[in-house]
Amino acid sequence: MKAPRFAYARPASVAEALALLDKHKDDARVLAGGQSLVPMLNFRVAAPKVLVDINRIAALSGIKVTKSHVRIGALTRHAELERSADIAKHLPLVAAAMPHVAHPAIRNRGTFGGSCALADPAAELPACALALGATFVVAGRKGERRIAAEDFFRGLYATALKAGELLVAAEFPLPKAGYASAFGELARRHGDYAMVGVAAYGSRKGGKFSDMRIAFFGVGDRPQRASAFEKALEGQSSVDGALAKLDADLAPRADLYSSAATKRHLAKVLAGRVLKELAA
Ligand SMILES: Cc1cc2nc3c(=O)[nH]c(=O)nc-3n(C[C@H](O)[C@H](O)[C@H](O)COP(=O)(O)OP(=O)(O)OC[C@H]3O[C@@H](n4cnc5c(N)ncnc54)[C@H](O)[C@@H]3O)c2cc1C
User: Fold this and answer.
1) What is the pLDDT of residue 181?
2) 186: alpha, beta or left, given left = phi > 0 and alpha = psi -120 to 50?
3) Could you say which DSSP state residue 162 is in?
4) Counting CB atoms within 10 angstroms of each CB, which of 8, 126, 214, 272 has the fewest?
5) Nearest protein Cα to ligand 1, atom 19
6) How far, in Å, from the CA of 157 to the mean position of ligand 1?
């Protein structure tokens, strides 16, 4: 099938993009890498009247390291994150996740902001943002607002973005001394969305887990932290005793490929692996 008819605008600045989004509100859709939106148009799952192409807005691209955080522009391509020395150094969790995001051709076009704005519950980057305590920077006609990752993902393909708003960037706090991270996912084929995934970050000072932030993806309608599991890990040197607490945290739904019980089992196996890697 072909996409329904739409008008096309290619603003040169954030201000111009915001004016267009404000003018057309729910009739407009931002076009970033197009790797999800274009198939959605072709399948007629989405039928916006106006596409606002942000690809020429240089201010939305790039990775910047400050004294307190790493700022990733919304238009930064997955491939840039994958190859960035700054990401490898300061956000090794994101670096570990990137090879799992789709395939090289899609990573060349797909963007950080597109992935987070789409909010697929099985996507890697939203879970990394949650585990690392990132803050999303969102612009609207009335100015900017900042939204913690915890509050940004609202449900299945749903975020805190309002009509007329643009995701501009996310700020990831620099890792604390003595903290480590680890990432893992199980997918049917490499490059597929995850059946189950885990992004973990926390302290291993004195050989014990502390202050853990563990985000699961592919098991619910959004990336979600496992708070009972995190609490049970506090002060422990090994992960094994805490794994049973995942029953309280996760209520996976069956999907086309696996039952809820299979997903729960995979989540426990994967969490054990990822936390052992983090401890090592
Ligand atoms: C075969 C295939 C396999 C894939 N596998 C994976 C995978 O394993 N893991 C994974 O995470 N992703 C996967 N993807 C999706 C890919 O990562 C996309 O790049 C990503 O989901 C969307 O990014 P995009 O830049 O292409 O966004 P687009 O497709 O351009 O936009 C996606 C949505 O986000 C909105 N949007 C985009 N940017 C902004 C912004 N700055 N502000 C507000 N709204 C915005 C758009 O309006 C649209 O609704 C896969 C895609 C394909 C085609």
Assistant:
1) 98
2) beta
3) P
4) 8
5) 110
6) 11
DSSP string, 92-128: HHHHHHGGGSS-HHHHHH-BHHHHHHHT-TT-HHHHH
172, 194 Cβ separation under 8 angstroms: no
Which residue numbers in the chain have pLDDT < 70? none
Is the CB–ligand 1 distance for residue 31 below 6 Å? yes
Q: What is the 112 CA–ligand 1 centroid distance (Å)? A: 8
* Pairwise CA distance, residues 162 & 141, whole Å: 11
> How many CB atoms are closer than 10 A to CB 227?
14
Map residue 173 onto helix, strand or coil: strand
Classify residue 86 as exposed, middle or buried by CB count within 10 Å of its CB (0-12, 13-18, 19+): middle
CB 168 within 8 A of CB 60: yes
Q: How far is residue 142's CA from residue 209's CA, in Å, rounded to a whole number?
A: 43
Here the tokens at position 165 are 């708003």
Tell me the C-alpha distance between 123 and 101, whole Å: 8
User: How many Å apart are CA 73 and CA 111, to the nearest integer?
Assistant: 9
To test the ligand 1 pocket, which listed residue (21, 77, 106) has its Cβ within 8 A of the most ligand atoms? 106
State both tokens at 124: 């890697």
Report d(CA 247, CA 145) in Å as an integer.
Answer: 35
